[in-house]
C-alpha cells in the first residue's frame, strides 16, 4: 500500500523496541472514516505495570499489548468474550493510551456477513478459552483480520509476529523451572484479571456509549 506523504506519521513509545522503527505511516482521514476499511489498532495498556512485568520476567517488554480490529464502525476484540463496541466508544475509553493504527485495506465482508463470521467464532473465544501466552486479544485480532480483509490483506506478518512475541516469548529469559511455573501461575491469574476487568469495564463502556448516544455493543 502506498504511503501518503501528506499524512503525518504515527509515533508511540513502544515502536522502537517492538518493530525497530520510530514511527509508522499515518492513516489518511478518508480511510479512518471509511466503514468498509479494515483497521488494526495496537494499544499499550500496561502503563507502569509494563515495567513491573518486565522486571518479573527478566526482559524488557516494549508494551503490554491490546489489539482491536475496526470495520463497519465497530471495534472487535477479545477480553472475556468477543466484544464489539463502536469506534467512538473505544476512542473515548482508550484514546489516552499509546497506540498506532494500521490500514489493512478494504473489507471483503458486508456488515451482516461480518456479524455472522464473528458469531461463528464466539464458541471458541469465551472466558474459559483465554490463555495469556497462547490465546489472547492479539491472537484473536490476527484471526479476525485474516477473515475479513480482502486479497489476504491482514496484518503484515512481521508486524503481527512482533506483537505476538510479547506474550508468546514473554518467559524466554527465565530458567526452565521458572518458565513452567510462570506459564501456569501467570495464566491462571491473568485469566481471572481479564474476566474481572471485562465485567467491570462493561458498565463503563455502556455508560460511555449512552453519553455519546451510541449503541452499547456487546
TrEMBL record:
UniProt-recorded Gene Ontology molecular function terms: deubiquitinase activity
Entry keyword annotation includes GTP-binding: no
The UniProt record lists the keyword Magnesium: no
InterPro entries: PPPDE_dom, PPPDE_sf
Record-level GO BP terms: protein deubiquitination; proteolysis
Ranges of residues in domain PPPDE: 36-188
Keyword annotations from UniProtKB, A to Z: Hydrolase, Protease
Family classification: Belongs to the DeSI family.
PANTHER family: DESUMOYLATING ISOPEPTIDASE (PTHR12378), IP06716P-RELATED (PTHR12378:SF80)
Name of the protein: PPPDE domain-containing protein
Protein source organism: Haptolina ericina
Amino acid at each position: 500500500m502506498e504511503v501518503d506523504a501528506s499524512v503525518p506519521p504515527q509515533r508511540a513509545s513502544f515502536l522502537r523496541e517492538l518493530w525497530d522503527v520510530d514511527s509508522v505511516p499515518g492513516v489518511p482521514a478518508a480511510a479512518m472514516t471509511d466503514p468498509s476499511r479494515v483497521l488494526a489498532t495496537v494499544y499499550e495498556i500496561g502503563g507502569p505495570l509494563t515495567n513491573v512485568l518486565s522486571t518479573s520476567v527478566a526482559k524488557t517488554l516494549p508494551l503490554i499489548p491490546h489489539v482491536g480490529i475496526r470495520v463497519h464502525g465497530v471495534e472487535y476484540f477479545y477480553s472475556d468474550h468477543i466484544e464489539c463496541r463502536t469506534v467512538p466508544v473505544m476512542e473515548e475509553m482508550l484514546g489516552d493510551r499509546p497506540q498506532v493504527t494500521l490500514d489493512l485495506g478494504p473489507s471483503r465482508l458486508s456488515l451482516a456477513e461480518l456479524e455472522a463470521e464473528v458469531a461463528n467464532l464466539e464458541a471458541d473465544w469465551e472466558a474459559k478459552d483465554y490463555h495469556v501466552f497462547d490465546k489472547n486479544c492479539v491472537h484473536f485480532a490476527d484471526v479476525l483480520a485474516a477473515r475479513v480483509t480482502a486479497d489476504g490483506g491482514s496484518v503484515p506478518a512481521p508486524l503481527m509476529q512482533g506483537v505476538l512475541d510479547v506474550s508468546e516469548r514473554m518467559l524466554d529469559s527465565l530458567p526452565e523451572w521458572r518458565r513452567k511455573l510462570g506459564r501456569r501461575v501467570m495464566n491462571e491469574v491473568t485469566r481471572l484479571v481479564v474476566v474481572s476487568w471485562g465485567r467491570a469495564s462493561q458498565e463503563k463502556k455502556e455508560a460511555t456509549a449512552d453519553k455519546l448516544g451510541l449503541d452499547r455493543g456487546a
